[in-house]
Amino acid sequence: MKAFHLLLSLSFAVMLWACGSKASNSADEKQTAAPAEDAVVPIKLTPVSTVVRAEPVVASGLVSSAQEARLSFKIGGIINRMFVEEGQSVRKGQLLATLDLTEINAQVSQAQFANEKAERDLGRVKSLYADTAATLEQLQNATTGTSLAKQNLTIAQFNRSFAQIRSTVDGTVTRKIANAGEFIAPGGSVYTISSNRPNDWVVRVGVSDKDWARLRLGNHASIKLDAYPDKTFSGTVSELAQAADPVNKLYEVEVRINPGAVKFAPGLFAKVTLVPAQSRSYTLVPVEAIVEGNGKEGFVYVLADDRKHVRKLPIKIGFLDGDKVLLTNSLSGVKDVVTGGSAYLTEESTVVVK
User: Fold this and answer.
1) Structural domain of residue 284, as residue ranges?
2) What is the pLDDT of residues 275-303, one digit of tens each?
3) 257 and 217: one domain?
4) Which element (helix H / strand E) includes 195?
5) What is the pLDDT of residues 143-173, one digit of tens each?
């Protein structure tokens, strides 16, 4: 009987211990969960500033020569000789190609014979008119016929003089389009010559209408070339198109570039940064303040009035400047933005300023 009472007492003690342990664990869990609900996010604030800048215009294009000539024969015919090849340097006035003159010389001879006959006819009519054997109309017709024959001879001789191609600039042959023995139509391109003078190199780029309106002649530009990745070249805007390209709807801007001591060639790829004279005011914030950035849009967090929570404000990104972001919309009334801890925030977060 005593053993039974002892066993019952032990069982009752074990039950009391188990209940107490469970209650203690439950209290501990509540104490552990409570801080998670009241978690405070430490944040860092950075002052917002305002800066006046000219937003750069970035575009790409190809290096070419401002003095580029597409040379051709005035008349058609068979090409007789080609004196230069692609890549060769040429001088202004240098003979580059000639046509076969067989047909052209025959045309000049025909014009000469016709002119001589017209002059003989005029002499005879003048003699007959002096003897009253010819009328005034016949004399006038003969005079006109002589004038026409002289003009035809002038045309034939002029065409023969342009049955050859001479370089119009000091430069380099960038394209040779035809070969000796081929028939070439009047005005058909035979050579393309690019001037190689240092002050003739340009880059032509296309810009939008919004950027075109901000540019002026003489605006500064910096140019990077893939051929010379370690160099930055300076340039100025020398021409602004007054109409958009009908295909891509962009306005062409010509930038004159100074090569310095570097060798240039037509077709080099260039990235151009244009700096307009027109400037505007921007709101300046650190790049780490931007959250949920998407192209030109994003958000920043600012401290709420109670200084225990934050507000999320939309922003419009103008462009990056190192570790700063220039915003096109002003953050009216905002003195500081959240930089440290912004990645962990929501508008429901409780915060403390470090």
Assistant:
1) 41-53+280-353
2) 887 777 888 899 888 888 787 889 999 98
3) yes
4) strand 189-195
5) 999 999 999 999 999 999 989 999 988 888 9
